[in-house]
Structures
1.
Amino acid sequence: MDIKNKVAIVTGGASGLGRATAEVLAQQGAKVAIFDLNDERGQQAVAEIGADKAAFFAVDVTSDQSVEQAVDAVVNHFGGVHLCVNCAGICPAARTLSRDGEPMPLSGFSTAININLVGSFNVARVAAAAMANNEPSGEAGERGVIINTASVAAYEGQIGQTAYAASKGGIVGLTLPMARDLAPLGIRVMAIAPGIMGTPMIKAMPEKVQDALVANIQFPKRLGLPAEDFAGLVVHIAENAYLNGETIRLDGGIRMGPK
Protein backbone atom coordinates (compact mmCIF):
# COMPACT_ATOMS: atom_id res chain seq x y z
CA MET A 1 0.00 0.00 0.00
CA ASP A 2 1.26 3.42 -0.92
CA ILE A 3 0.84 5.42 2.30
CA LYS A 4 0.76 8.81 0.60
CA ASN A 5 -2.71 10.36 0.74
CA LYS A 6 -4.09 7.37 2.65
CA VAL A 7 -5.98 7.72 5.94
CA ALA A 8 -4.57 6.09 9.06
CA ILE A 9 -6.15 5.60 12.48
CA VAL A 10 -3.62 5.41 15.33
CA THR A 11 -4.97 4.50 18.76
CA GLY A 12 -3.00 5.76 21.72
CA GLY A 13 -1.71 8.29 19.23
CA ALA A 14 -1.18 11.09 21.73
CA SER A 15 1.84 9.53 23.43
CA GLY A 16 4.53 6.87 23.26
CA LEU A 17 4.66 4.50 20.31
CA GLY A 18 1.34 5.81 19.01
CA ARG A 19 2.56 9.39 18.92
CA ALA A 20 5.76 8.40 17.11
CA THR A 21 3.72 6.38 14.62
CA ALA A 22 1.32 9.24 13.97
CA GLU A 23 4.22 11.60 13.29
CA VAL A 24 6.02 9.24 10.92
CA LEU A 25 2.88 8.37 8.98
CA ALA A 26 2.13 12.07 8.54
CA GLN A 27 5.69 12.62 7.33
CA GLN A 28 5.10 9.88 4.77
CA GLY A 29 2.09 11.74 3.42
CA ALA A 30 -0.77 10.02 5.24
CA LYS A 31 -3.69 11.73 6.93
CA VAL A 32 -3.71 10.64 10.55
CA ALA A 33 -6.66 10.24 12.90
CA ILE A 34 -5.39 10.18 16.49
CA PHE A 35 -7.59 8.17 18.86
CA ASP A 36 -6.86 8.81 22.54
CA LEU A 37 -8.53 9.68 25.84
CA ASN A 38 -6.09 12.46 26.69
CA ASP A 39 -7.59 15.55 25.09
CA GLU A 40 -4.71 17.88 25.99
CA ARG A 41 -2.04 15.62 24.54
CA GLY A 42 -4.20 14.83 21.54
CA GLN A 43 -4.69 18.47 20.66
CA GLN A 44 -0.98 19.11 21.20
CA ALA A 45 -0.11 16.27 18.81
CA VAL A 46 -2.35 17.76 16.11
CA ALA A 47 -0.81 21.20 16.62
CA GLU A 48 2.71 19.82 16.27
CA ILE A 49 1.99 17.45 13.37
CA GLY A 50 -0.22 19.96 11.58
CA ALA A 51 -4.00 20.29 11.40
CA ASP A 52 -3.82 19.68 7.65
CA LYS A 53 -2.29 16.26 8.31
CA ALA A 54 -3.88 15.12 11.58
CA ALA A 55 -7.07 15.26 13.58
CA PHE A 56 -7.80 14.23 17.16
CA PHE A 57 -10.78 12.15 18.26
CA ALA A 58 -11.51 11.47 21.93
CA VAL A 59 -12.10 7.72 21.95
CA ASP A 60 -12.58 5.01 24.56
CA VAL A 61 -11.35 1.90 22.75
CA THR A 62 -13.33 -0.36 25.10
CA SER A 63 -16.65 1.22 24.05
CA ASP A 64 -18.32 -0.04 20.89
CA GLN A 65 -20.36 3.16 20.57
CA SER A 66 -17.34 5.44 21.07
CA VAL A 67 -15.30 3.62 18.44
CA GLU A 68 -18.13 3.35 15.92
CA GLN A 69 -18.88 7.06 16.20
CA ALA A 70 -15.21 7.97 15.91
CA VAL A 71 -14.60 5.85 12.81
CA ASP A 72 -17.68 7.39 11.18
CA ALA A 73 -16.26 10.81 12.04
CA VAL A 74 -12.91 9.90 10.48
CA VAL A 75 -14.60 8.80 7.26
CA ASN A 76 -16.58 12.05 7.17
CA HIS A 77 -13.48 14.14 7.92
CA PHE A 78 -10.86 12.46 5.74
CA GLY A 79 -12.96 10.45 3.28
CA GLY A 80 -12.11 6.91 4.36
CA VAL A 81 -9.87 4.57 6.39
CA HIS A 82 -6.97 2.61 4.87
CA LEU A 83 -4.64 1.84 7.77
CA CYS A 84 -5.35 1.09 11.43
CA VAL A 85 -2.52 0.92 13.97
CA ASN A 86 -3.57 -0.09 17.49
CA CYS A 87 -1.10 1.25 20.07
CA ALA A 88 -3.48 2.06 22.94
CA GLY A 89 -2.76 -0.03 25.99
CA ILE A 90 -1.75 -0.27 29.62
CA CYS A 91 1.02 -2.21 31.36
CA PRO A 92 -0.11 -3.14 34.87
CA ALA A 93 2.11 -5.03 37.27
CA ALA A 94 0.66 -7.34 39.91
CA ARG A 95 1.44 -10.86 41.04
CA THR A 96 -1.24 -13.56 41.05
CA LEU A 97 -0.76 -13.62 44.81
CA SER A 98 0.69 -10.68 46.70
CA ARG A 99 3.55 -11.10 49.16
CA ASP A 100 0.84 -11.30 51.84
CA GLY A 101 -0.92 -14.11 49.98
CA GLU A 102 -3.79 -11.97 48.75
CA PRO A 103 -5.10 -12.82 45.25
CA MET A 104 -4.81 -10.19 42.56
CA PRO A 105 -8.07 -8.23 42.25
CA LEU A 106 -9.99 -9.66 39.31
CA SER A 107 -10.77 -6.14 38.15
CA GLY A 108 -7.08 -5.51 37.49
CA PHE A 109 -6.82 -8.53 35.22
CA SER A 110 -10.09 -7.73 33.46
CA THR A 111 -9.11 -4.11 32.83
CA ALA A 112 -5.86 -5.10 31.12
CA ILE A 113 -7.63 -7.62 28.88
CA ASN A 114 -10.41 -5.16 28.11
CA ILE A 115 -8.13 -2.29 27.09
CA ASN A 116 -5.26 -4.15 25.43
CA LEU A 117 -7.05 -7.05 23.75
CA VAL A 118 -10.75 -6.24 23.52
CA GLY A 119 -9.97 -2.59 22.74
CA SER A 120 -7.67 -3.55 19.87
CA PHE A 121 -10.25 -5.92 18.42
CA ASN A 122 -12.98 -3.33 18.86
CA VAL A 123 -11.15 -0.72 16.79
CA ALA A 124 -9.93 -3.28 14.25
CA ARG A 125 -13.41 -4.65 13.55
CA VAL A 126 -14.93 -1.21 12.97
CA ALA A 127 -11.96 -0.01 10.92
CA ALA A 128 -12.22 -3.16 8.79
CA ALA A 129 -15.85 -2.36 8.03
CA ALA A 130 -14.80 1.07 6.78
CA MET A 131 -11.89 -0.39 4.78
CA ALA A 132 -14.23 -2.83 3.06
CA ASN A 133 -15.80 0.15 1.27
CA ASN A 134 -12.50 1.18 -0.33
CA GLU A 135 -11.69 0.57 -3.97
CA PRO A 136 -8.90 -2.04 -4.36
CA SER A 137 -5.52 -0.44 -4.95
CA GLY A 138 -2.02 -1.51 -5.99
CA GLU A 139 -0.90 -4.70 -7.67
CA ALA A 140 -2.41 -6.79 -4.88
CA GLY A 141 -5.76 -5.03 -4.88
CA GLU A 142 -5.56 -4.00 -1.24
CA ARG A 143 -8.33 -2.27 0.62
CA GLY A 144 -6.65 -1.85 3.98
CA VAL A 145 -4.07 -2.88 6.57
CA ILE A 146 -4.55 -3.47 10.30
CA ILE A 147 -1.51 -3.54 12.61
CA ASN A 148 -1.97 -4.46 16.26
CA THR A 149 0.64 -4.09 19.00
CA ALA A 150 1.60 -7.19 20.95
CA SER A 151 4.74 -7.47 23.11
CA VAL A 152 7.60 -9.86 23.79
CA ALA A 153 5.70 -10.42 27.04
CA ALA A 154 3.28 -12.48 24.96
CA TYR A 155 6.07 -15.08 24.81
CA GLU A 156 8.20 -14.36 27.88
CA GLY A 157 6.04 -12.58 30.43
CA GLN A 158 7.80 -11.60 33.62
CA ILE A 159 6.76 -12.00 37.23
CA GLY A 160 3.81 -9.70 37.84
CA GLN A 161 2.81 -9.65 34.15
CA THR A 162 0.05 -12.25 34.08
CA ALA A 163 -2.60 -9.76 32.93
CA TYR A 164 -0.33 -7.91 30.50
CA ALA A 165 1.15 -11.08 29.01
CA ALA A 166 -2.28 -12.65 28.61
CA SER A 167 -3.61 -9.57 26.84
CA LYS A 168 -0.65 -9.45 24.46
CA GLY A 169 -0.77 -13.21 23.89
CA GLY A 170 -4.34 -12.66 22.77
CA ILE A 171 -3.12 -10.15 20.17
CA VAL A 172 -0.72 -12.75 18.79
CA GLY A 173 -3.48 -15.36 18.76
CA LEU A 174 -6.03 -13.29 16.87
CA THR A 175 -3.65 -12.13 14.13
CA LEU A 176 -3.86 -15.11 11.79
CA PRO A 177 -7.60 -15.82 12.12
CA MET A 178 -8.42 -12.14 11.61
CA ALA A 179 -6.16 -12.10 8.54
CA ARG A 180 -8.04 -15.13 7.24
CA ASP A 181 -11.39 -13.50 7.97
CA LEU A 182 -10.48 -10.36 6.04
CA ALA A 183 -8.39 -11.84 3.20
CA PRO A 184 -11.32 -12.07 0.76
CA LEU A 185 -11.77 -8.30 1.16
CA GLY A 186 -8.13 -7.49 0.47
CA ILE A 187 -7.44 -6.39 4.06
CA ARG A 188 -4.20 -7.55 5.69
CA VAL A 189 -3.66 -8.04 9.43
CA MET A 190 -0.29 -7.96 11.16
CA ALA A 191 1.06 -7.52 14.69
CA ILE A 192 4.29 -6.11 16.07
CA ALA A 193 5.73 -7.46 19.32
CA PRO A 194 8.09 -4.75 20.61
CA GLY A 195 10.79 -5.40 23.14
CA ILE A 196 12.04 -2.59 25.36
CA MET A 197 11.30 0.62 23.51
CA GLY A 198 12.68 4.02 24.43
CA THR A 199 9.33 5.65 25.08
CA PRO A 200 9.15 8.71 27.35
CA MET A 201 8.02 6.44 30.21
CA ILE A 202 11.11 4.23 29.90
CA LYS A 203 13.43 7.17 29.29
CA ALA A 204 12.20 8.73 32.54
CA MET A 205 13.53 5.76 34.52
CA PRO A 206 16.90 6.06 36.33
CA GLU A 207 19.86 5.45 34.04
CA LYS A 208 20.94 2.36 35.98
CA VAL A 209 17.49 0.82 35.42
CA GLN A 210 17.71 1.53 31.69
CA ASP A 211 21.20 0.03 31.58
CA ALA A 212 19.93 -3.14 33.26
CA LEU A 213 17.20 -3.44 30.65
CA VAL A 214 19.61 -2.90 27.77
CA ALA A 215 21.93 -5.58 29.16
CA ASN A 216 19.40 -8.24 28.09
CA ILE A 217 19.32 -7.02 24.49
CA GLN A 218 21.58 -8.88 22.07
CA PHE A 219 22.22 -6.32 19.32
CA PRO A 220 22.13 -3.42 18.93
CA LYS A 221 22.78 -2.64 22.59
CA ARG A 222 20.22 0.12 22.99
CA LEU A 223 16.56 0.74 23.64
CA GLY A 224 14.24 0.48 20.66
CA LEU A 225 13.56 3.76 18.87
CA PRO A 226 9.83 4.60 18.70
CA ALA A 227 10.06 6.49 15.40
CA GLU A 228 12.90 4.81 13.53
CA ASP A 229 12.29 1.23 14.68
CA PHE A 230 8.61 0.86 15.58
CA ALA A 231 7.00 3.40 13.28
CA GLY A 232 9.50 2.50 10.58
CA LEU A 233 8.27 -1.10 10.76
CA VAL A 234 4.67 0.09 10.59
CA VAL A 235 5.50 1.88 7.35
CA HIS A 236 7.24 -1.19 5.93
CA ILE A 237 4.34 -3.48 6.83
CA ALA A 238 1.91 -1.10 5.17
CA GLU A 239 4.03 -0.95 2.02
CA ASN A 240 4.86 -4.68 1.79
CA ALA A 241 1.74 -6.42 0.50
CA TYR A 242 3.13 -9.91 1.14
CA LEU A 243 3.27 -9.45 4.91
CA ASN A 244 0.08 -10.90 6.35
CA GLY A 245 -1.14 -12.93 9.32
CA GLU A 246 2.11 -12.74 11.29
CA THR A 247 3.55 -11.19 14.46
CA ILE A 248 7.00 -9.64 14.05
CA ARG A 249 9.24 -9.42 17.11
CA LEU A 250 10.97 -6.04 17.24
CA ASP A 251 13.36 -6.53 20.11
CA GLY A 252 17.07 -6.63 19.21
CA GLY A 253 17.11 -10.37 19.90
CA ILE A 254 16.09 -10.08 23.54
CA ARG A 255 14.80 -13.18 25.31
CA MET A 256 13.53 -12.40 28.76
CA GLY A 257 14.19 -14.81 31.65
CA PRO A 258 12.12 -14.85 34.86
CA LYS A 259 12.75 -11.85 37.10
2.
Amino acid sequence: MSSIEEKFYGLPTTAISDALKGINHMDSAIKPLRDSDKIAGRAFTVNVPAGDNTGVLRGIREAKPGDILVVDGKGFTNRAVAGDFVIGLAKNMGLQGIVIDGAIRDIQGIRDLDFPVFFRASTVAASVKAAPGELQVTISSGGVSVSPGDIIVGDADGVIVIPKANKEEVLQSTLKKIEKDNEREEKYNVSRETALAYLNSVLD
Protein backbone atom coordinates (compact mmCIF):
# COMPACT_ATOMS: atom_id res chain seq x y z
CA MET A 1 0.00 0.00 0.00
CA SER A 2 1.48 3.31 -1.03
CA SER A 3 1.84 6.13 1.47
CA ILE A 4 -0.33 9.17 0.95
CA GLU A 5 2.78 11.14 -0.04
CA GLU A 6 3.42 8.64 -2.82
CA LYS A 7 -0.18 8.96 -3.97
CA PHE A 8 0.34 12.69 -4.49
CA TYR A 9 3.45 12.13 -6.63
CA GLY A 10 2.78 13.07 -10.24
CA LEU A 11 -0.62 14.63 -9.55
CA PRO A 12 -0.74 18.07 -11.22
CA THR A 13 -0.21 20.96 -8.83
CA THR A 14 -2.94 22.76 -10.77
CA ALA A 15 -5.50 20.10 -9.79
CA ILE A 16 -4.31 20.20 -6.18
CA SER A 17 -4.66 23.98 -6.22
CA ASP A 18 -8.24 23.62 -7.44
CA ALA A 19 -8.92 21.16 -4.61
CA LEU A 20 -7.50 23.72 -2.16
CA LYS A 21 -9.64 26.51 -3.65
CA GLY A 22 -6.60 28.35 -5.01
CA ILE A 23 -4.68 28.76 -1.77
CA ASN A 24 -1.39 27.42 -0.37
CA HIS A 25 0.64 27.75 -3.55
CA MET A 26 4.09 29.31 -3.25
CA ASP A 27 5.08 32.49 -5.05
CA SER A 28 5.07 31.90 -8.80
CA ALA A 29 8.76 32.83 -8.98
CA ILE A 30 9.66 29.57 -7.23
CA LYS A 31 10.05 27.05 -10.02
CA PRO A 32 12.04 23.87 -10.70
CA LEU A 33 15.44 23.99 -12.33
CA ARG A 34 14.15 21.51 -14.92
CA ASP A 35 10.55 21.33 -16.12
CA SER A 36 10.62 17.55 -15.68
CA ASP A 37 11.33 17.77 -11.93
CA LYS A 38 8.55 16.49 -9.66
CA ILE A 39 8.37 16.09 -5.90
CA ALA A 40 5.78 14.92 -3.36
CA GLY A 41 6.71 14.27 0.23
CA ARG A 42 6.98 15.41 3.83
CA ALA A 43 8.33 18.86 4.58
CA PHE A 44 11.45 19.16 6.69
CA THR A 45 11.54 22.86 7.42
CA VAL A 46 14.57 25.12 7.72
CA ASN A 47 14.62 28.77 8.76
CA VAL A 48 17.83 30.65 7.92
CA PRO A 49 18.95 34.28 7.96
CA ALA A 50 19.19 35.82 4.50
CA GLY A 51 22.22 34.48 2.63
CA ASP A 52 23.31 32.05 5.38
CA ASN A 53 23.34 28.31 4.74
CA THR A 54 24.44 26.78 8.05
CA GLY A 55 20.85 25.80 8.74
CA VAL A 56 20.59 24.22 5.30
CA LEU A 57 23.57 22.00 6.08
CA ARG A 58 22.08 21.08 9.45
CA GLY A 59 18.77 20.27 7.80
CA ILE A 60 20.42 18.00 5.25
CA ARG A 61 22.10 16.13 8.08
CA GLU A 62 18.95 15.74 10.19
CA ALA A 63 16.24 15.14 7.57
CA LYS A 64 15.08 11.60 6.87
CA PRO A 65 15.44 9.89 3.49
CA GLY A 66 12.49 10.86 1.31
CA ASP A 67 11.94 14.19 3.07
CA ILE A 68 11.76 17.45 1.14
CA LEU A 69 13.89 20.21 2.59
CA VAL A 70 11.88 23.45 2.56
CA VAL A 71 14.02 26.52 3.23
CA ASP A 72 12.81 29.94 4.28
CA GLY A 73 15.67 31.96 2.82
CA LYS A 74 13.73 35.23 3.21
CA GLY A 75 13.47 35.53 -0.57
CA PHE A 76 17.05 36.84 -0.57
CA THR A 77 18.68 36.47 -3.98
CA ASN A 78 22.08 38.18 -3.64
CA ARG A 79 23.77 35.17 -2.01
CA ALA A 80 23.12 31.51 -2.74
CA VAL A 81 22.27 29.21 0.15
CA ALA A 82 23.11 26.13 -1.94
CA GLY A 83 25.34 25.23 -4.85
CA ASP A 84 26.10 21.96 -6.57
CA PHE A 85 28.19 20.64 -3.66
CA VAL A 86 25.45 21.25 -1.09
CA ILE A 87 22.77 19.86 -3.40
CA GLY A 88 24.96 16.81 -3.94
CA LEU A 89 25.08 16.28 -0.18
CA ALA A 90 21.27 16.37 -0.07
CA LYS A 91 21.06 13.80 -2.84
CA ASN A 92 23.54 11.48 -1.17
CA MET A 93 21.71 11.75 2.16
CA GLY A 94 18.57 10.43 0.47
CA LEU A 95 16.43 13.56 0.40
CA GLN A 96 13.77 13.68 -2.29
CA GLY A 97 14.23 17.33 -3.21
CA ILE A 98 14.80 20.88 -1.99
CA VAL A 99 12.56 23.93 -2.12
CA ILE A 100 14.33 27.25 -1.45
CA ASP A 101 12.74 30.66 -1.08
CA GLY A 102 16.08 32.17 -1.99
CA ALA A 103 18.95 31.69 -4.41
CA ILE A 104 21.14 28.85 -5.64
CA ARG A 105 24.28 28.82 -7.78
CA ASP A 106 26.29 26.35 -9.91
CA ILE A 107 23.31 25.82 -12.19
CA GLN A 108 24.99 23.47 -14.63
CA GLY A 109 26.48 21.39 -11.86
CA ILE A 110 23.07 21.00 -10.23
CA ARG A 111 21.51 20.00 -13.55
CA ASP A 112 24.11 17.26 -13.83
CA LEU A 113 23.10 15.88 -10.41
CA ASP A 114 19.61 14.92 -11.65
CA PHE A 115 18.05 16.02 -8.34
CA PRO A 116 14.89 18.14 -7.99
CA VAL A 117 15.55 21.71 -6.85
CA PHE A 118 12.89 24.43 -6.71
CA PHE A 119 14.17 27.96 -6.11
CA ARG A 120 13.48 31.67 -6.50
CA ALA A 121 16.63 32.86 -8.33
CA SER A 122 20.25 32.10 -9.15
CA THR A 123 23.34 34.13 -8.38
CA VAL A 124 27.12 33.77 -8.43
CA ALA A 125 27.81 34.79 -4.81
CA ALA A 126 28.34 32.21 -2.07
CA SER A 127 26.53 32.05 1.25
CA VAL A 128 27.91 33.04 4.63
CA LYS A 129 28.00 30.81 7.73
CA ALA A 130 27.20 32.96 10.74
CA ALA A 131 24.05 31.57 12.38
CA PRO A 132 22.76 28.04 13.02
CA GLY A 133 19.24 28.66 11.76
CA GLU A 134 16.20 26.74 13.02
CA LEU A 135 15.00 23.28 12.09
CA GLN A 136 11.50 21.79 12.11
CA VAL A 137 9.67 25.00 12.98
CA THR A 138 6.75 26.58 11.14
CA ILE A 139 8.15 28.83 8.43
CA SER A 140 6.96 31.04 5.62
CA SER A 141 8.29 29.96 2.25
CA GLY A 142 7.15 31.62 -0.94
CA GLY A 143 4.43 33.40 1.02
CA VAL A 144 2.92 30.18 2.39
CA SER A 145 3.03 28.83 5.92
CA VAL A 146 4.79 25.46 6.04
CA SER A 147 4.86 23.24 9.12
CA PRO A 148 6.99 20.14 9.62
CA GLY A 149 5.25 17.14 8.05
CA ASP A 150 3.06 19.12 5.67
CA ILE A 151 3.02 17.60 2.20
CA ILE A 152 4.93 19.45 -0.49
CA VAL A 153 4.09 18.82 -4.14
CA GLY A 154 6.00 20.46 -6.97
CA ASP A 155 6.14 20.28 -10.73
CA ALA A 156 6.73 22.59 -13.70
CA ASP A 157 3.85 24.84 -12.62
CA GLY A 158 5.23 25.49 -9.15
CA VAL A 159 5.00 24.32 -5.54
CA ILE A 160 1.95 23.77 -3.37
CA VAL A 161 1.66 23.03 0.36
CA ILE A 162 -0.93 20.58 1.70
CA PRO A 163 -1.54 20.87 5.46
CA LYS A 164 -0.88 17.49 7.02
CA ALA A 165 -4.21 17.55 8.86
CA ASN A 166 -6.13 17.75 5.55
CA LYS A 167 -4.03 15.52 3.33
CA GLU A 168 -6.57 12.71 2.83
CA GLU A 169 -9.39 15.12 2.09
CA VAL A 170 -7.25 17.07 -0.36
CA LEU A 171 -6.12 13.87 -2.07
CA GLN A 172 -9.68 12.70 -2.66
CA SER A 173 -10.77 16.15 -3.89
CA THR A 174 -7.79 16.26 -6.25
CA LEU A 175 -8.57 12.83 -7.72
CA LYS A 176 -12.20 13.86 -8.28
CA LYS A 177 -11.04 17.07 -9.98
CA ILE A 178 -8.74 15.13 -12.32
CA GLU A 179 -11.54 12.69 -13.18
CA LYS A 180 -13.90 15.57 -13.94
CA ASP A 181 -11.29 17.29 -16.11
CA ASN A 182 -10.65 14.09 -18.05
CA GLU A 183 -14.36 13.63 -18.69
CA ARG A 184 -14.64 17.22 -19.95
CA GLU A 185 -11.62 16.70 -22.21
CA GLU A 186 -13.08 13.53 -23.72
CA LYS A 187 -16.48 15.15 -24.24
CA TYR A 188 -15.56 18.55 -25.64
CA ASN A 189 -11.98 18.70 -26.91
CA VAL A 190 -12.34 16.33 -29.86
CA SER A 191 -13.51 18.51 -32.74
CA ARG A 192 -14.47 22.02 -33.73
CA GLU A 193 -18.12 21.25 -33.12
CA THR A 194 -17.64 19.90 -29.60
CA ALA A 195 -15.25 22.73 -28.73
CA LEU A 196 -17.84 25.25 -29.91
CA ALA A 197 -20.54 23.50 -27.89
CA TYR A 198 -18.44 23.89 -24.75
CA LEU A 199 -17.65 27.55 -25.43
CA ASN A 200 -21.32 28.29 -26.01
CA SER A 201 -22.28 26.48 -22.80
CA VAL A 202 -20.03 28.66 -20.63
CA LEU A 203 -20.29 31.96 -22.50
CA ASP A 204 -23.95 32.24 -23.53
